[in-house]
Prior knowledge:
The chain is mainly β. 15% of the residues lie in helices and 42% in strands. It has four helices and twelve strands; from the N terminus they run βββββαβββαβββαβα. β9 and β10 form a beta hairpin. It is globular, with a radius of gyration of 18 Å. The two termini are 34 Å apart. The model has no long low-confidence stretch (mean pLDDT 93).
Amino acid sequence: MFSGIVAAVGRISQIIPLAEGVRLQVDTASLPLDDVQLGDSIAVNGVCLTVVEFSTQPGAQHVTFDVSRETLNCTVGLDAPGEVNLEKALRLSDRLGGHLVSGHVDGVGEVIRFAAIGESHELIIRAPHALARYIARKGSIAVQGVSLTVNSVTDEPAQNEQAGGCVFSINLIPHTVDVTTLKHCHAGALVNLEIDLMARYAERMLLESRVVA
């Protein structure tokens, strides 16, 4: 589990094709690796990945992950060099500064707008139909692994016999923009989305109660 509070911005420095998927080497920048072991979980752009190799040598601190084809098919940002948000898994004693994040991406959204408004930035994202019902005003959502609060939600009508999704807005304070990769957002960019765990479980319980009734 994670909290959605990004600990460092690293960089995918090497991508090695595998039979099914890729092996990523991520330069971890300022992320402390003194307590990292093989098999540990680290969120990379909101995707929970397992450490298969790591180096703590000065000037060459990096972590290596194997990424399956299935994961590549349902996420973005893990198939090309570039900056990535990093967060180590929570310990039971850690503060939960954001919200409970599993690192299991639910879908991919499209950035509609990213623009400065005063000291902050407004980020507007279109979410697919499958996720729209889980996104609520003042609710939590993880975007690229960053825990954020939804300011507003507008449902989109169905078009061309396809169910509509929703458009939601988020306000980013300067600190969040400075310490995450969200600073690189632009219209048309794709981002990993993970809905609030509570919304997923609430739906499941409601469906179960209807079946019992």
